[in-house]
């Protein structure tokens, strides 16, 4: 027996590393098992951070090529150095993952390097070395969902992992799935010069978001040159020396057709990752989608074993995993950690960005809730005009009877940075009028939030 701990967390992603640090802060002796060569999980290594680095770089490239001229700035011979762009992305990732390692040292969290396996309550082995612990947290995250008939080689047929590493801009990129990954990475390669076609099974994009926002999103991305094949499914993709041939079929049935691509990005969702954990042997229950089943306090059916993050139910978002990590560590320390699942924001980091919190109009209609809508377009916002980016709007949904804020949806410049005041308002149970009566700096994009809140009561000033 090598060592014993109060808590062993398996997985060093945003859920696991945050849980480990918070538990250590609260006085526990903590270890975190991570098999990747670096800490930070999917998010820091092959997810949020590298994708945002490439989104930023490609946005700069696109602006230099297409937007600067309108400001009276003429650039000639703007060229892409993709190698350098990829090297910068790698540096951004490296700085972030080293940051987590530093935080582990600072908080005295032991990193057990290797693959963790649960040998029973209170027992974890890491590459065969056994450890004892009072509690175990499963934070093993998720992996890309496979599609029958589409064999990923991470070169021509890629998941997001290969899609972040391409060493040349594809002539034609076909994206399977019009969700978060497809639209973010599709935007990256579109801005760098690829023709991009998104094949989406449903008749709309980003299915978890507000329908009106999704429609506007589609229009704006189409204006940027992205092509959409909605209501269409991919039944096969075959790679050869000349590229990839996809077979498409209407989702509701009909004749098949072929589509040629240089690279195919498979992004139809992610699934819980539990391989090699020994869940079945340890008796830990999973649901029909392979996610670890927990109660409201992250406890599995086996005493002393808990789970958080992408490996359990709920949105697969880094900040949701982090909140769960903190809440669970605090509960294990006898405190009252809690996550409000009604106020978890979601942001698609395209240009414009799409940001949302709370209920969509479709959800409110389905629940029979009477609601008011307040909307304000960025075309009427002075700051957006000054920036030269006026696509989109702020939409606020409030309870018809009480005016309580129920949902907020923004498509527009820096929407993800504009949204948080509405997340705060929702968290504090504010009304649309509360938001409308807050003094917002002028000229700022957030004035569109104030105006949308005023519009919910039919008294917007600037439209
Ligand atoms: P993960 O981050 O997946 O971490 C799990 C870790 O556990 C991994 O490092 C894995 O190696 C390790 N592990 C698994 N099994 C074992 C084992 N048996 N032993 C030891 N280690 C093990 N979310 C956002 O909120 N914002 C974004 O902008 C965003 N962008 C994304 C972009 C992409 C391309 C992708 C793929 C995802 C993105 N996400 C984003 C989602 C986000 O990455 C996940 O929600 C988040 O990483 C989940 O955190 P987690 O800790 O649950 O799991
Ligand atoms: P997603 O769930 O966002 O989108 C998948 C899309 O694929 C959906 O629109 C779905 O209808 C469609 N689809 C499913 N099966 C299909 C098929 N056979 N053919 C065509 N379309 C099909 O999943 P995605 O984009 O893979 O991302 C996974 C998760 O990672 C996201 O849900 C999100 O939780 C997280 N993520 C978050 C980001 C952010 O916060 N900015 C960025 C990237 C990922």
Describe this entry's structure for a reader.
The protein has 463 residues and is an alpha/beta fold. The longest helix is centred in the first third of the chain and has 25 residues, at 82-106. It has helices spanning 14-25, 41-46, 48-67, 82-106, 160-163, 180-191, 211-223, 279-282, 318-332, 361-366, 382-387, 415-418, 420-427, 432-436, 447-455, and strands at 3-10, 30-34, 110-113, 116-120, 123-126, 129-138, 142-144, 157-158, 172-176, 195-199, 227-229, 232-240, 243-250, 257-261, 263-266, 270-272, 305-307, 346-348, 353-358, 371-377, 393-399, 405-412. The chain starts with a strand and ends in an 8-residue tail after the last helix. It is 32% helix and 25% strand. Helix 1 packs parallel to helix 9 (318-332), helix 3 packs antiparallel against helix 4 (82-106) and helix 3 (48-67) runs parallel beside helix 6. Strand 5 and strand 6 form a beta hairpin. It binds flavin-adenine dinucleotide and 1,4-dihydronicotinamide adenine dinucleotide (NAI). Residues 147, 176-182, 184, 199-202, 207, 233-234, 267-270, 315-317, 347-349 line the site of 1,4-dihydronicotinamide adenine dinucleotide (NAI).
Point out poorly predicted stretches: none
Q: Looking at the structure, what is the overall shape?
A: globular
Question: In total, how many domains does the architecture comprise?
Answer: 3
The third-level CATH topology of the largest domain is FAD/NAD(P)-binding domain
Q: Label the structural class.
A: alpha/beta
The tally of strands reads: 22
Kindly report the name of the CATH homologous superfamily of the largest domain: FAD/NAD(P)-binding domain
How large is the radius of gyration? 23 Å
Mean pLDDT reading:
97
CATH architecture field of the largest domain: 3-Layer(bba) Sandwich
Strand content: 25-35%
Unique bound compounds: flavin-adenine dinucleotide, 1,4-dihydronicotinamide adenine dinucleotide
Task: Give the end-to-end Cα distance, rounded to a whole number of Å.
Answer: 70 Å
Query: In which range does the helix fraction lie?
Result: 25-40%
Number of DSSP helical runs = 15
Q: What oligomeric assembly is this protein in?
A: single chain
């Amino acid at each position: 027996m090598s060592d014993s701990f109060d808590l062993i967390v398996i997985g060093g992603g945003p859920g696991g590393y945050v849980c480990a640090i918070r538990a250590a802060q609260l006085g526990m002796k903590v270890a975190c098992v991570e098999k990747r060569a670096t800490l930070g999980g999917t998010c820091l290594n092959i997810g949020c951070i590298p994708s945002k680095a490439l989104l930023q770089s490609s946005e700069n490239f696109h602006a230099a090529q297409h937007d600067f001229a309108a400001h009276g700035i003429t650039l000639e011979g703007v060229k892409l150095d993709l190698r350098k762009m990829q090297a910068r992305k790698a540096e951004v990732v490296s700085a972030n993952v080293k940051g987590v390692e530093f935080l582990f040292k600072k908080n005295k969290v032991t990193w057990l390097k290797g693959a963790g396996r649960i040998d029973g309550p209170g027992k974890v082995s890491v590459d065969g070395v056994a450890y004892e612990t009072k509690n175990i947290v499963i934070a093993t995250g998720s992996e890309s969902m496979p599609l029958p008939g589409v064999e990923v080689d991470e070169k021509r047929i890629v998941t997001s992992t290969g899609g972040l590493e391409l060493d040349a801009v594809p002539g034609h990129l076909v994206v399977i799935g019009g969700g978060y990954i497809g639209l973010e990475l599709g935007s990256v390669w579109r801005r760098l010069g690829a023709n991009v076609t998104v094949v989406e099974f449903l008749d709309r994009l980003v299915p978890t978001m507000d329908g009106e926002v999704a429609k506007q999103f589609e229009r704006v991305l189409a204006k940027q040159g992205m092509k959409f094949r909605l209501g269409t499914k991919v039944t096969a993709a075959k790679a050869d020396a000349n590229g990839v041939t996809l077979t498409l079929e209407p989702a509701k049935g009909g004749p098949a057709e072929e589509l040629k691509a240089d690279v195919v990005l498979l992004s139809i969702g992610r699934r819980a990752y539990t391989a090699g954990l020994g869940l079945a042997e340890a008796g830990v229950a999973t649901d029909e989608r392979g996610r670890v089943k927990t109660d409201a306090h992250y406890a599995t059916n086996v005493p002393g074993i808990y789970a958080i993050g992408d490996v359990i139910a709920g949105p697969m978002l880094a900040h949701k995993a982090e909140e769960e990590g903190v809440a669970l560590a605090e509960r294990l320390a006898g405190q009252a950690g809690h996550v409000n699942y009604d106020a978890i924001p979601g942001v698609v980091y395209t240009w414009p960005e799409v940001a949302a919190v709370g209920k969509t109009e479709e959800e409110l209609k389905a629940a029979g809730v009477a609601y008011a809508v307040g909307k304000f377009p960025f075309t009427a916002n002075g700051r957006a005009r000054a920036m030269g980016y006026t696509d989109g709007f702020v939409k606020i949904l409030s309870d018809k009877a009480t005016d309580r804020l129920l949902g907020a949806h923004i498509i527009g410049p820096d929407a993800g940075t504009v949204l948080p005041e509405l997340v705060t308002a929702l968290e504090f149970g504010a009304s649309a009028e509360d938001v409308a009566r807050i003094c917002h700096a002028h000229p700022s994009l957030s004035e569109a939030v104030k105006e949308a809140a005023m519009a919910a009561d039919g008294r917007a000033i600037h439209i």
